[in-house]
Structure formats: C-alpha cells, structure tokens
Amino acid sequence: MAAEIRLFTCLSDNFGYLIHDPATGATASVDAPEAGPIQKALERENWKLTDILVTHHHHDHVGGIAELKQKYNCRVVAPHDKKAAIANVDQRVANGDVVKVGGLLARVLETPGHTLEHISYVFDSEKTVFAADTLFSIGCGRVFEGNYPMMWDSLLRLRALPDDFKLYCGHEYTASNVKFALTVDPDNPALKARAEQVAKQRAANQPTVPTLMGEEKKANVFLRADEPSIAANLHMKGASPAEIFGELRERKNKS
Ligand SMILES: [Zn+2]
What we know:
The chain is an alpha/beta fold and about 260 residues long. It has a single domain (about 5-255), classed as Metallo-beta-lactamase, Chain A (4-Layer Sandwich), CATH 3.60.15. The chain has nine helices and 14 strands. Strands 1-2-3-4-5-6 form a six-stranded mixed sheet, with helices on one face. The longest helix is centred in the C-terminal third of the chain and has 15 residues, at about 190-205. The mean pLDDT is about 95. Zinc ion binds near residues 56, 58, 61, 114 and 133.
C-alpha cells in the first residue's frame, strides 16, 4: 500500500507534512513548525502521530516538537547536532541510516550548508524526498552555517535522485525564486513554463509543491550551476560550479 502524504501551511510560509503508512497506521510529521496545524491535520484524518522526523535545528522546524511529543508520546528522530540545539530527541541519525515509519523506510541523506547538521529524508519506495531548507522549488536555502562548496555538494546529492522523485520542501518560496531565476537564466524554456504554472497556482491559492526532481533539474538555476549557459550569463566562464553557485546565492540574497 502506498503512503499517504498531506501538506498544509504552518506559521507564515512553512509547509507542514504528514506521511502515513496505511498498513500499520504509523504517521510521521516531517519537522514540526508549530503544533496546532499538525494536530488539526492529524484529527482531520483520524491519524495518530507516531514519529517526528527533524531536518535541522531552526525554530520554524522544531517549535512544535515539545507539545506534540507530550500529547502523542511520539518518537523524535533528528540529526546529530553538535550544539544539541534540538531538544526531546529519541534517536539521532546520520548519512545512510534508515528510519522506519511503520512499514515505510526513510533513508537519511546528509545535506549540510543551510545548517551544518541539515538532513533530508528519502522515501525510496514512495519516490519522495523531504529536503526542507536545502532545496526549494526553483531555489535553495540560504547558506547560514556551511560554505558554498558544501551546499553545492548537498545539492548534487539531491540532484542525483531519479527524475520521477517528488520534492517536498520546507517553504512556499517558489514565486520569489522564479522571479530571481528569470534574471539569471532568462532563456530557459523549462523555467519559463514553470513560471507560468506557479503564477496560476499562486493565483488559485494552491501550493507549488510537490514538484518532480526531473523538472527541478531542468528549471532550478541552483541545480544548474555547472551549466555553461549559466556561467556565460554571469560572465564567469572558467569558474568552478561551486563558485558559480556562490555567486547565484549571493545575488539571490540581495534580490
Ligand atoms: Zn532553516
């Protein structure tokens, strides 16, 4: 039986996600931006929260953990964060570890850069990745704790996932990402098509995720830092992909 996934808004622009295994009844929340909307989503479905899969320590991803853990006595799975900024953790995981949510298997992919401990969860059998604040649709997270080569390497790890994998990211930033991407990759037909689609989705108040990794590889300029056309557009021929990526990220920061 395939997993069921629900997405909903938390805080101002975070996504909340539940992934449910119908065979066992297990349900995981990917991160916990705030308890209220997660609880409501669980009640709507009549699901019981068994696990919280944490991606990184930022408050808008962990703020609801304590309250949810108290209410559901769920297991909290989180990366090894050296400063132990994530509290109430039952299980610490690292690259390649496999976490069971009922009968569903989540593979841990270390994707540092946004924070040093940031991980993504890959459900291979569901062709689904939860990439939180590393990879957004048509964008990527800010590089707060790592450096540009580290973040570029994390994006390459995600880019290695098959084209038919669905990307679920941490924030609804797609419209702003599209606006920026068009300034540095204006002749990309896949990006132009995505821009039209996103405008329609946002006008209809629909979320712009999930998207397919194959579409992101074609349209997301941050995954295209090693494309010669991007280097040419930035007048950076001969620069390394990590340098090009860094330039893209800095321009986006200022946009
Ligand atoms: Zn974050």
